[in-house]
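Model it.
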Amino acid sequence: MTRSFRIDIQILRGLSVLAVVFFHAKQSITPAGYLGVDVFFVISGFVVTPLIIRIFQRDQTQSLRANWIHFYRRRFLRLVPALGAALSFSAVLIFLFASPLDFNNLAHQGFATLLLVGNFGAYSFSGNYFLPHPNPLVHTWSLSVEEQFYFFLPIVIYLFVRGGKAIASRTLKVFAGIISISIVFFAFPEIAKSLLTHFGLIIRPEFAFYSPLSRVWEFALGGVLFLIKDSHLSGLPTLKPIFRLITPLLLIALLFAPVDLGSRIGPIFACLLAVGSISTFGFDLFGSHFAKLFVWLGDRSYSIYLLHMPLMFVAKYSPLGHFGTNRAVPTFVALILSFVLGHFSYSKIEGRYRYRSEEPGRTHTIHKLSLIFILVPSLLFGSILAISHFHPLNLAALPINGEWGAYPDNDCKKKTERNIPCIYGTDASRKTVLLIGDSHAQMLGQAVQNSAVQSNWNVVLWGESACAFEIGDLGKPAQDDCEKANRERLDWMIANKPDAVIISMYVLREATLDSYKNTFMQLRQVVPNVLIVLTDPIFPDNDEFVNVRPVLNNKYEAPKSLPIAQMLNGDGVVNAEYSKWAVSNGFSVVDPTRYFCDEVKCWRYANGEWLYMDDDHLSVTGAKLLIPDFNKFLSSVSAKSK
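Modeled.
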């Protein structure tokens, strides 16, 4: 039972693309929908293997070279026009609607896809495929894997079948060997990691997910199915319908059920069920309405697959203000647009070029037209990459233009990036003050240095962004890099014995404070004079600073002041408890609130200058308001030592 066109395979394509689209729309509903890609690999192997074999079936009118060129021309025209159009559309879409912070990864992934290495681009620029906020072109990894199959497998087969007869049987043996090796690398990625490490290459665990070596068994499995279908499977389509329906129904359940078997076991089951469904013609038994719908999807599956991911990305992750926080409606719109635009791409682009390799006298025209689909997206990605690096449109500019006061000079900035303390002073200075904490300590750097100069003190600036000063239980190993770095600071204090320490960090509202209290009590055993700077007032617009707005959005106008009721007062409650404990235990305390709030409102702009950098970090101007408090603290320490 051999057919050149099989409706059941088109149905299988339609189901597979629907599963992938649903997965990217709402992963929690169809957590195994990504396995549709594995089914596509099997289908490709089944469909493309006869085209590869045809390369080596020469007659008097066609040479091996002509056959080989014809094969690659067909693959080129089948894939590149729709891919180039989709990449161009994606570049414009992301440029207009996504955050400029996504431009760099988008452009690099786009170039990688055009160079047929999108899988390695996804590995480099996206990492884990299943993480939220993915690269908008991460899905092109699978297209590059297929293209690598099309490029290398004919070469491998040629090395084994050249000059010989029985091409199909020899190809079958090649595929059997490929499956044996590839599935080992897929199921046991530690083997690949060990081999590559032996050659000095360090890879992350997700390498096995994107590697063609770990995926080629799926393509080869489809190829084996084609090669044995006539001689070994001819009786399967005559099985009773109930038996022929088993694998299609199990495959549908696997793809759409709210259960995921995992990225190692799931693909094996998906591929085996796909093989069972193809070999039994099982999807032929589904009703005509079902068949009509999924054949329609199957015909357009390539274009739908190309376009759905950037649409979903914009719907789910664009910071465009009109989208709001509930992304259900934009995601549904993206779902519909995936099918509508996929149909347009199929009818106007994909269908227009895919069969032109058969037309005589059109080769040069075809190549010239096809080059458009490479050059246009290349220019677009190049422009986006330039914008990402050089900011000619100032898209990533912060809504506030206050000056960051962490580093008195560029040398200190470089040292801070390497976690090296910045030390300032003179031989005449007898005392040293150390500033530690997270970015809320860094923002006070210039202010503390100015105070030290005024008080004739040496100063050491040693803050680290996103790293609050906690040392944990010194009897146990450090729990993370921050704790390890803070213990280095403690060791420095023990060795150098500074006269005073100023600590500033963002104390979150959910903090229990117990760890901080333990740390500060241990710190005071080393340095008796400790000043704790409480968290400054927090404005409620953090998202506007973290998420840079898209091109189509107006620049955010940060309010210069807000009523007290609109501030994030939950942090203030923790601050009050924090302050009360510190004072009762003999620590000096500075509360910045009095410089930025009264009983009615809080402000971050005064006398023509911004006092803040964003929602919670002070600018140089704002930090310098605390200099009198630092002077008072240093003077009191100096007085104690007289």
